[in-house]
Amino acid sequence: MRAVLSVVLPLVLLVLVSATPTQHYALQGAKVVRVVPHTLGQLNHLHQLLMQGSYDFWKEPRALGSPVDIMVTLPAQEQLMASLESHSLKVQERLSDVGKVIAEQEAERGQRGAKAMDWADYHNYETITAWMASLAAQHPDLCSMEQVGTSYEGRPMYLLTISKGGTDKPGIFIDGDIHAREWISPAVVTYMVNQLLTGSHDDLLSSVVFYVMPVINPDGYSYTFTDDRLWRKTRSHTDSVFGCMGADPNRNWDFHWNEVGASSNPCSETYAGPHPFSEVEMQVVRDQITRLGNLKVYLTFHSFSQLWMYPWGFTTDLPSDWKDLDDLAQDAVKALTAIHGTHYEIGSSTNTIYAAAGGSDDWAKGVGGVKYAYTVELRDQGNYGFLLPRSQIIPTGEETFEALKVVGSFVKNTYGK
């Protein structure tokens, strides 16, 4: 969350104010700074700051030598800098004015005006779902669209099924935007759908079924277009006396729920919710994975950091079949990197980024029975973070689609009839 008070005020008031959705003007002068912990004391201090919920961690504390990115509003910068300096953490500025970047990107979208679905810009939920419906109408032999649920605020949630000649084939489930502010995620997911339907991929579509939900946090995603560009969570009401809203939907899954890397504080960005699957949107996705008995791969797309990760996220231990997951990830990333030279790190979630229980990929493998479950953190590595320029949508989509083709071909060759 974003701190807006000075160091002299009690932390409880800091949490109270940070619970209020931050308007764009409040981000004028906000910075993203990077520190690298080199001692256990420094790492523990950063973990304490994260758990307090007073700052918006764009890259969470992970390990010694691993960068940590923190967004801090202008009024709280003196407080944060003093805190970091007291632990000898050297600060590197990544973004000098978050509000300015958001304003510039909003102005660019305003200059374009309302546009039909394309990949020259980011689009709101209504545009994406209207485009999905048009695909089903234009390609009835290749795809169908069905409403599979309704969000907390009443938005319809849709599943797009893409296949040629029936659905009695091995399946790949793809979702995006579990965290609302990660706009590149649904942009890339929809780009790949478009490539599947408009390119020459008959052989793949004849052997594999693709199930796609580009935005599985529609309320949060919509809120980032209207109120707070950097909103992360869902938009459900909580029992917070401070009015804090929403849960982290990627800490809400019922597999080692809330054991590590999550918070019981409703004002925290990593609030796991009052109980597993408290968020209706995650119930909807869970139910789809459960009812589809042909799934071999689960792919959930996030940003940012350029990582291709597999379970587990709740422990440093690896699944017994980790080598199978790693081999496929290596092949997918090799194809991705060949397009634009983008480097991705590969490994289990805990060992690659940080421990965080209650994630969708852990549940998909540990409960849903999907052998190849992956979380993909898309571009970039912190130059823009969650504010990735629209000019990077197509290049990110191009390289990620090459990885998807590798995964699809693997499923076809391994499980195809």
Automatic annotation (TrEMBL):
The active site is at E377. GO terms for cellular component: extracellular space. It comes from the Eukaryota. PROSITE patterns: CARBOXYPEPT_ZN_1 (PS00132), CARBOXYPEPT_ZN_2 (PS00133), PEPTIDASE_M14 (PS52035). Pfam families: Peptidase_M14, Propep_M14. One of its GO terms (biological process) is proteolysis. Its cofactor is Zn(2+). Residues 121-411 form the Peptidase M14 domain. Keywords: Carboxypeptidase, Disulfide bond, Hydrolase, Metal-binding, Metalloprotease, Protease, Signal, Zinc. Residues 1-19 form the signal peptide. PANTHER family: FI01817P-RELATED (PTHR11705:SF91), PROTEASE FAMILY M14 CARBOXYPEPTIDASE A,B (PTHR11705). Belongs to the peptidase M14 family. This is Carboxypeptidase B. It comes from Chionoecetes opilio (Atlantic snow crab).
